[in-house]
């Protein structure tokens, strides 16, 4: 008898029984609303989804040169071909100064970080639009997509950099102690690439005209960066003002660290680094602020 009473008590007080007897009263309702005002970056979520970030990087690497005849060779062909064109027109025909260096390696040392940045800008800006279906169906930090696209470009950078080392050996240009600063300049290129990609990828979801402006932006930025010419053509204070373009500090920093040029004074590096940080931080906040609208607009 006692066992029967206990069973009746348990069944009458169980959540299942209560829900069955009065489903409307016990129905749990959750209302999701977008956050308002300024939002935090929530970098802890990026760390929590780090395995997903690794997956996106690996996926981008697999599909980047899928069904291409040359494969990863394009990572080398692109900067080498550009170097040949620049050497012919700017080095030989226009006789542009090259800081007392052979013009081919002068140009190629700048094209290695520039190609990394240009590819990050082009592909990173399209990272969200290319995955619209995933944005609508799956919940995850959207910031992982442009970040993964930029990080996938590191492999191309390494391949192009190996060619640069071979050219240095060919021209008998051996690095000095300055090469220890090279990781800092690569970090500067990475931060700049991430910042611009965050800005453009978010804007590309909201304004599809952005993808049509990217080729013009890359071309204009190329000639606004001292790749085909040295920044020493400018005198102070215009040279420091010129370094508001963060790729000026990256390019001249690479030449200084690898080839021993004296065209990377501290003022240029500091200004470029500060601007790169502003672009990255503002881009991250803008991306997070617009992130809540991606699924609706897409």
Strand content: under 5%
Roughly how many Å is the radius of gyration? 26 Å
| Biggest sheet features | none
* SSE run: HHHHHHHHHHHHHHH
Number of domains: 1
The total count of helices amounts to 15
Q: What structural class do helix, strand and pairing data support? A: mainly alpha
What does this structure look like?
With 298 residues, the protein is an all-alpha fold. The protein has one domain (41-297). It is 69% helix and 0% strand. It contains 15 helices and no strands. The longest helix is centred in the middle third of the chain and has 27 residues, at 144-170. It is globular and about 55 Å long. The N and C termini lie far apart (63 Å). Residues 1-21 and 30-38 have low confidence and may be disordered.
How are the secondary structure elements laid out?
Blueprint: H1 2-13, H2 15-21, H3 23-26, H4 43-48, H5 50-64, H6 74-93, H7 103-124, H8 132-137, H9 144-170, H10 182-206, H11 210-223, H12 238-242, H13 246-259, H14 266-291, H15 294-297
Helix pairs in contact: 5-9, 6-7, 6-9, 7-9, 7-10, 7-11, 7-13, 9-10, 10-13, 10-14, 13-14
Task: Kindly summarize this structure in a few lines.
The protein is 69% helix and 0% strand.
Essential attributes:
disordered N terminus; mainly alpha; 298 residues; single chain
